[in-house]
Every structure is written in structure tokens, then in C-alpha cells.
Design brief:
The protein is α/β, with parallel strands linked by helices. The chain has one domain: Rossmann fold (3-Layer(aba) Sandwich), CATH 3.40.50.300. The protein is built from 8 helices and 10 strands. The protein has a 10-stranded mixed sheet with strand order 5-4-1-2-10-9-3-8-7-6, sandwiched between helices. The N and C termini lie far apart (about 40 Å). Bound molecules: adenosine-5'-diphosphate. The site of adenosine-5'-diphosphate has 13 residues, from β1, β2 and α1.
């Protein structure tokens, strides 16, 4: 198991009092799995992602990555932000090399590997262009390559497509899914979009209202070989979608 979370609990102390965000979260993920966290707004999804990234400290329980306890931020864990956060004054090549430069790993071999990623995902001819010259989808792909460039063991994605309109979102999520699969990347994504979770994941963890516990786990691995768009036409898609919708108990 690449991630093992055992009875994770976290309560925020604030001026207004205590907020119990996570009560008893236990889950694990295997190498190469793509999983999603869904749950009611404010239930603790980002808190859990922050704890895995080493940005939030648990009160009790543990988070192990490759058997080693997470005690703070680490290069083993990559975080893909909601917005692409590309630097407009830097070229695409310089943007995707940034993480390696920060870690003083800008070696000729690493640069070659990153250029190969740009080539593989159709961005090589834009290497010397600026982010403003790319479409929304290409920018997102570029941000993904920058995160993958440092070869994280786990990639955490916090609502990665929320800044995109619906049509672009469908195309970009399929694109990012294909990249993650091809690279065999282990990834955990927070999303409020049930369809996105069911179409992209091997398993979906449904969290309860705050304080969060894992309410149910949906196994989508039988659909693993389908693309997100193909999955949306599969009968199992609707079964899981409807079940998750009921479990979330959303009142409109
Ligand atoms: P989600 O990502 O599921 O919407 P969050 O993990 O962001 O939920 O937040 C869970 C709960 O913890 C919310 O009630 C939120 O207001 C509270 N919270 C988040 N961060 C802090 C903080 N730094 N201090 C106090 N309360 C916080």
C-alpha cells in the first residue's frame, strides 16, 4: 500500500472555539490507483488532503506514505492547485522546470525527461511560448506536467477543474485522466462533482458530514479500462452516481 491512513482525527482550534474536522478517517490506496474524495461542503475534504500533504497536523491517528509517517511537507507528495498558477513572464519550458529548479535538480537528464513529457503531451512546440498563448486545457496540462516533473509518489488534486467551464472541464478531465494513467501515477482528487469522481476514479470515498468519517467506498475498478467519456455511457456509472447522490443527502 502506498498510502495508509489509520483513524485520522483533527480538530481546529480557532478564536470562535473548536471545529472538529476529521473524526475517524481510515483508508488506503494501492500504487497506481486513482481515487476521489466526495462529501458535503465543509465536511473536511481539503483538511484531509492538507494532512496527507503534511500541511495540517493530526491530533491522533497516522498517515503513512510508503510505510513512512508524514510529518511535514515532502517531495514525495505533489499538490496540484485549483488554478494552474503558471508564471506569465516565464516560458512553458521554464514553468515546467520550476519545481526541479527549486529543489536544485535542474540536471540535463531531468530537463530531457521533462522535454519528453512536453513532447508526449503535445506541448513541445509551445516550449518557448508564454502561458497566455495557450488554451485553458493546454495550461492545465502544463501545470500537470510541472507537478509530475518532480516525480511525486502521490499526487493530490484539490478541485483541479473548478476554474473551467463545463465543456472544457469534460475534455480537460479526460486529458488529465489519460496522462495519470499513462504515467501510472497514484492520485487522490477532491471534487464536489459526483460525475467527475465516478468517471475518473478506481474508487470513490464518500465522506459524511463534519466531523468526517468514510461513509462508503465505491469500487469502480471494473470500469478501469474505459475513458471518462466512455464511462459516462456505462450503466454502472448511473448506478454509482445515484447511490452517491443519496448518500450525500443533499437538500436543495
Ligand atoms: P471541505 O474541503 O470538505 O469543504 P474543509 O476541510 O475546508 O472542508 O473544512 C472543514 C471544516 O473545518 C469547515 O467547517 C471549515 O470551516 C473548518 N476549517 C477549515 N480550515 C480551518 C482553520 N484553519 N481554522 C478553523 N476552522 C477551519
Amino acid at each position: 500500500m502506498i498510502i495508509q491512513i489509520r483513524s485520522a482525527a483533527l480538530t481546529y482550534q480557532s478564536a470562535d472555539g473548536e471545529v472538529e474536522a476529521l473524526r475517524d478517517i481510515s483508508l488506503h490506496m494501492a500504487e497506481g490507483e486513482l481515487c476521489s474524495l466526495v462529501g458535503p461542503s465543509g465536511c473536511g475534504k481539503s483538511t484531509l488532503l492538507g494532512a496527507i500533504a503534511g500541511l495540517e497536523k493530526l491530533d491522533s491517528g497516522s498517515i503513512l506514505v510508503d510505510g513512512q509517517e508524514v510529518c511535514g511537507p515532502s517531495p514525495r507528495i505533489g499538490l496540484m492547485p485549483q488554478r494552474d498558477q503558471l508564471f506569465e513572464w516565464k516560458t512553458i519550458e521554464d514553468n515546467v522546470m520550476l519545481g526541479l529548479q527549486v529543489r536544485r535538480q535542474d540536471t540535463p537528464e531531468n530537463r530531457q525527461r521533462v522535454m519528453e513529457l512536453l513532447r508526449r503531451y503535445g506541448l513541445a512546440e509551445f516550449a518557448h511560448k508564454r502561458p497566455g498563448q495557450l488554451s485553458g486545457g493546454m495550461r492545465q496540462r502544463c501545470a500537470m506536467i510541472r507537478t509530475l516533473a518532480v516525480e511525486p509518489r502521490i499526487l493530490l488534486l484539490d478541485e483541479p477543474f473548478s476554474a473551467l467551464d463545463y465543456q472544457t472541464r469534460l475534455a480537460v478531465s479526460a486529458d488529465i485522466h489519460a496522462i495519470l494513467r499513462r504515467e501510472g501515477q497514484t492520485a487522490l482528487m477532491v471534487t464536489h462533482d459526483i460525475a467527475e469522481a465516478v468517471s475518473m476514479s478506481d474508487r470513490v470515498f464518500v465522506l459524511s458530514r463534519r466531523p468526517a468519517v468514510v461513509k462508503t467506498v465505491h469500487d469502480l475498478s471494473p470500469l478501469r479500462d474505459l475513458t471518462p467519456l466512455q464511462r459516462r455511457d456505462h450503466p454502472s456509472f448511473h448506478i454509482h452516481f445515484n447511490a452517491i447522490w443519496k448518500e450525500l443527502d443533499i437538500h436543495v
